[in-house]
Structures are given as C-alpha cells and as structure tokens.
Amino acid sequence: MQKSVSKTQSGVKIHFTGGVQKQNIVKMVENCATGQCECMSDETKAKVKNMKVEGSDGNVELNLEGGVSVEEIEAALERSKVIN
Question: pTM (2 decimals)?
Fold first, then answer.
C-alpha cells in the first residue's frame, strides 16, 4: 500500500493506492471518531472537524477537514494499527 498526504484548502487529503481495502480505511476513521484510535494525539484529534472516505479498494481517498498539518497526519499514519 502506498500513501500520499497533501495539504488541501480545508485540511489534509490522504490518497491510498495499491493493496488498500476501503473497509480498512473506514474502520480507521470509525476508530478515530469514537476515540478508539491511538495513532493521533488528543491535540491533533481536536483539530479534525470532519473525515470523509471516498473511492474503492485499491484507490481510496481520506479527506480530513480542520487545522491539521501534513506532518501530524503522516506521524499518525505511521502509528496506525489498522493500516500497518
């Protein structure tokens, strides 16, 4: 699985390609939304206003709205147990 993180006007976009299942990204978002994820610091979580998953297996985009930085999200992805 390849991941690319980029800044958008409203936050940060993560583009997953290759061996990625949309279901896993949805699970990661659900874990974050319910406070069950350990990948983001509480400070970073507080900055995220909305998360939206689009695409299909092999080509999934996750859009995070809010004042988060590319660096914060890259660090969170490294710690994610769902996708690593």
Answer: 0.91
In a domain, 38, yes or no: yes
Show the DSSP H helices in 1-84 as ranges.
22-33, 42-47, 70-79
Into how many domains does the chain fold?
1
Give the Cα separation of 13 and 6 in Å (integer).
Answer: 5
* Residue 84 domain-assigned (yes or no): no
CA–CA–CA angle 65, 25, 41 (5° rounding): 55
Query: Mind listing the pLDDT tens digit of every residue in the chain (84 residues)?
Result: 999 999 999 999 999 999 999 999 999 888 888 878 788 888 998 999 999 999 999 999 999 999 999 999 999 999 887 787
43 Cα distance to chain centroid:
15
